[in-house]
């Protein structure tokens, strides 16, 4: 699914819409550089999940817990550059939990993503404020990100 | 001698009190709840229900890995705190070795496996000869496919134990029809197993209690694509 967003509000709405299709165990991996609207998208997801939480990038905390049932966790892998570093965030333990996980800077940990996840790519559009947001489901049987 | 043992190294968690050879109390949970919420209530119950308090304990035992990063640290931190508070020693036991004690009384090879995600397991093999347990392989992090070669070389029946047992059984039993899966009640690491395994080890001060992290094969690859 490809969306074009022309504003912060629209990016939030796309995130909110996606969140309604999620359930316990869902992993959403965001790809796209600085200023693309990833955190805005996550804010929309939180709203869509009915959460009042204040959403911000967990660049230093690595993970934010926004509560909810299933619990909504927000990771930021900007500072992660090794398997040991990733392991010590407890990331793999969160995958075992009954939770919904969204990951910013998935580029940095792409080889550690679970077999099944939802991929969200952010790219620039034609206008300065335009973003092309592409959402795809990964995890067909022929595709194994662990190999 | 009274031992308080704790395991929170993976999805299941447990706490047990043993006095010499007798298991006085044991609480076990495998309900997907977080250890930070359930472990200390279990420790408290294991002591109280046995009519004991923390100061009655002579030795603290904990599974110190392999396992989940957060889980192992919760158990280690809990035992360090308890041991320091009452000024007693502690022992760290391999999670894989602890679960081999589930098969005590049988004659078989215990193939202890914990799910390390992405088709990988933490694995170790032990020979079980009724009341005697002998380690055959060191704790290691390997791909499930490597495990089949290790199992094929065994001359006794091989029984899979651990939270990776069912996954390995489903993957390997077509090519290894003799492979067996431990019953649900014998499958997971237990605090009492850690207490039993600790008898062969030397106690240490709480500040010398360490964690045994195993490096996964996938860590040799790039994290980025």
Describe this structure in words.
The complex is a heterodimer of chains A (147) and B (225). Chain A has helices at 8-19, 38-48, 83-87, 91-96; strands at residues 2-5, 27-31, 63-65, 71-76, 99-104, 117-124, 131-138. By secondary structure, chain A is of the alpha/beta class. In chain A, strand 6 and strand 7 form a beta hairpin. Chain B has 225 residues and is α/β, with parallel strands linked by helices. Chain B has 2 domains: 2-95 and 189-224, Nucleotidyltransferase, domain 5; 97-186, 2-Layer Sandwich (Nucleotidyltransferase, domain 5), CATH 3.30.420. In chain B, 30% of the residues lie in helices and 28% in strands. Chain B has helices at 35-49, 69-86, 95-100, 144-152, 165-172, 184-187, 191-197; strands at 2-7, 13-19, 22-29, 59-63, 89-93, 107-115, 120-129, 132-135, 140-143, 158-161, 180-181. In chain B, helix 1 (35-49) packs parallel to helix 2. Classes of the chains: A alpha/beta (147), B alpha/beta (225).
Quick tags:
heterodimer; A: 147 residues; alpha/beta; 4 helices; 23% helix; globular; B: 225 residues; Nucleotidyltransferase, domain 5; six-stranded mixed beta sheet; five-stranded mixed beta sheet; 30% helix
């Amino acid at each position: 699914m490809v969306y074009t967003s022309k504003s912060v509000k629209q990016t939030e709405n796309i995130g909110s819409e996606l969140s309604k299709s999620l359930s316990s165990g869902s992993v959403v991996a965001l790809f796209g550089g600085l200023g693309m609207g990833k955190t805005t998208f996550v804010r929309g997801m939180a709203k869509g999940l009915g959460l009042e939480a204040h959403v911000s990038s967990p660049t230093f905390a690595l993970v934010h817990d926004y509560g909810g049932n299933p619990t909504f966790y927000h990771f930021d892998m900007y500072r992660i550059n090794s398997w040991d570093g990733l392991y010590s965030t407890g990331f793999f333990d969160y995958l075992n939990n009954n939770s919904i996980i969204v990951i910013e800077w998935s580029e940095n940990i792409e080889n550690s993503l679970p077999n099944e996840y939802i991929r969200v790519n952010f790219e620039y559009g034609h206008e300065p404020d335009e973003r092309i947001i592409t959402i795809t489901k990964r995890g067909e049987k022929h595709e194994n990100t662990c190999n | 001698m009274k031992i308080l043992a704790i395991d929170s190294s993976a999805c299941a968690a447990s706490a047990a009190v043993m006095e010499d050879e007798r298991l006085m109390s044991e609480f076990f949970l495998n309900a997907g709840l977080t250890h930070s919420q359930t472990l200390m209530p279990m420790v408290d119950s294991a002591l109280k229900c046995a009519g004991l308090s923390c100061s009655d304990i002579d030795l603290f035992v904990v599974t110190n890995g392999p396992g989940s990063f957060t889980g192992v640290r919760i158990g280690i931190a809990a035992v360090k705190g308890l041991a320091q508070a009452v000024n007693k020693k502690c022992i760290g036991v391999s999670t894989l070795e602890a679960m081999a004690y589930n098969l005590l009384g049988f004659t078989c090879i215990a193939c202890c496996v914990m799910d390390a995600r992405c088709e990988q397991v933490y694995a170790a093999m032990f020979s079980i000869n009724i009341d005697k347990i002998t380690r055959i392989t060191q704790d290691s992090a390997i791909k499930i496919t490597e495990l089949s070669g290790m199992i094929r070389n065994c001359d006794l029946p091989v029984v899979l134990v651990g939270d990776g047992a069912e996954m390995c059984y489903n993957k390997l039993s077509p090519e290894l029809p003799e492979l067996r899966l431990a019953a649900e009640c014998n499958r997971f690491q237990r605090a009492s197993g850690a207490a039993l395994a600790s008898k062969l080890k030397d106690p240490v001060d709480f500040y010398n209690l360490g964690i045994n992290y195993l490096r996964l094969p996938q860590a040799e690859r790039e994290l980025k694509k």
